[in-house]
Amino acid sequence: MSTKNFAAGGELTLCGACFKGTGPKTATPTLFCSRCRIAAYCGRECQLKHWKEHKLRCKQHVTLDTERQETALSAPMQTRLHDALQHFAASIVYEALFLGARPALALGRPESKTMTHFLELVFAFEPKPDTSNIREQFKLDSATVISFADNLRMHPSAPMQQFVPDGVHRKALRPGLNSVASIMIRGVHVASGSVTSSFIDEASFPEDRYPTELSKTAINTAWKETLAWSLSRPKAPVATQFAVEDVIASETCEGGPEAVLKRLKSLGRFEIARRCRR
């Protein structure tokens, strides 16, 4: 996942190892990988700790960046989509984790699919020269849970396969881990049909920001509608609000998507603040 453009905009950038917020709006400066300039960290200790996991991806990021520079002139729409998607993907990490991956992959629960499946989010991209708000240029088209094994069979030569093992090997490498999530974010340029992707592999779920215990929280069966509604908001709230919204949606989902969205739209600041306290 690219965080370079997002960080340049002065927003919150997450450490790739511990998920701590860094950047101008925090007391912690952002340290980027000197090779790919994409992976971000809160300090040298986290960077060294994460190197074994990041090493293969780093090479892939450098290769993709070189290819991007070579095609910048020949395929300007593809390049514009690529840059915009990296910026957008970095800005919706918490949103995708709390409102999408948590219920879709049953994070933190015994039946978790985190080591065998990933969440794929496909967005339609339509540049709007009259706005700088990246959220207004991407519209969620589909949200699907896909197994790593099926994806490997369907796309054996895809770039992500170079550093993403299938479900069987993932479970062998990380036994018992059920609170991380992998998310594929794809963008499709409406005018040209160009497609590009950003893959977030094994993002650690920030349980300290979640208001209830993951293993005891119900699954929001209307998570697709909830995520689509959230992404349609012009401005994203703080991360802790996403967590509260997921908990409330899980309590309301028996009434269907309409009941969930009605409840979420009626949330007030006082209730959000009260729910944030564990």
Descriptive overview:
- The structure is a single chain.
- With 278 residues, the protein is α+β, with helices and mostly antiparallel strands.
- The chain has two domains: 74 residues, no CATH class; 202 residues, no CATH class.
- It has ten helices and eight strands.
- The strands form three sheets. It has a four-stranded mixed β-sheet with strand order 6-5-7-8. A two-stranded antiparallel sheet has the order 1-2. Strands 3-4 form a two-stranded antiparallel ribbon.
- β1 and β2 form a beta hairpin.
- The chain is globular and about 50 Å long.
- It starts with a helix and ends with a helix.
- The N terminus is likely disordered.
Please write out the topology.
Blueprint: H1 4-8, E1 13-14, E2 21-22, E3 31-32, E4 40-41, H2 44-71, H3 76-91, H4 93-104, E5 117-125, E6 138-147, H5 148-154, H6 167-173, E7 180-189, E8 195-204, H7 223-231, H8 239-252, H9 257-265, H10 269-276
Helix pairs in contact: 4-7, 4-8, 8-9, 8-10
How would a textbook summarize the main sheet? 4 strands, mixed
Q: How do the strands of the widest beta sheet line up side by side? A: 6-5-7-8
**Helical proportion?**
40-55%
Portion in strands: 15-25%
